[in-house]
What does this fold into?
Amino acid sequence: MKLFLIGLLLLAATGTALAVYRTQNITYPGGGAGPVVFSGEHHSQPCSSCHSPDVFPQMQQGATPVTMAAIDQGKLCGSCHNGSLAFASQGNCQRCHQQQ
Ligand code: HEC
Ligand code: HEC
Ligand code: HEC
It folds into this structure.
């Protein structure tokens, strides 16, 4: 019974995090290149593929500064946006940076 209750609590906690995340967009100003919208809806990978010590360790917007140089070196967004797991950063500027 006790284990069952703990299970229910864990389920409730995860459910809340999911609800916060999936429907959410994170908008980066994007320097001179135009704003970048990261959408939870288009990123349905397991949480741990991004929220791991080497990528985005914290579930908190703005905790990890993102630069284009890091992405081009295959870090942060570039750990997937490298032309093999997802479209590459080079040559696809406008798939991330929205022009006004
Ligand atoms: C494709 C990458 C990716 C995946 C997968 C991912 N996240 Fe995130 N998440 C991010 C990024 C990037 C941020 C912003 C972190 C930062 O700025 O350091 C973030 C932030 C968050 C935040 C904070 C939002 C805010 O407004 O501060 C929560 C909560 C969160 N994620 C939960 C989750 C959960 C739960 C999952 C799994 C269902 C998940 N994330 C999967 C990339 C991802
Ligand atoms: C865990 C791998 C992963 C990480 C990390 C990741 N992405 Fe993605 N992203 C994907 C995949 C997979 C797609 C969809 C496949 C494709 O179009 O190549 C995608 C699609 C996108 C799209 C297109 C969505 C649409 O409108 O169709 C944008 C924009 C994007 N990602 C931005 C980002 C940004 C910004 C970051 C970093 C904050 C990031 N991604 C980190 C895997 C990732
Ligand atoms: C996978 C998504 C993605 C792609 C593709 C992408 N960018 Fe970015 N870019 C970002 C994110 C996220 C930031 C961080 C923005 C911030 O923190 O305001 C950024 C930042 C920048 C900046 C601001 C200064 C800097 O160096 O960080 C410039 C300029 C830039 N990108 C240019 C480009 C150009 C040019 C291309 C195409 C060759 C490109 N980007 C492709 C996501 C992307």
Remarks:
- Residues 16-96 form a domain with the Cytochrome C3 fold (CATH 3.90.10.10).
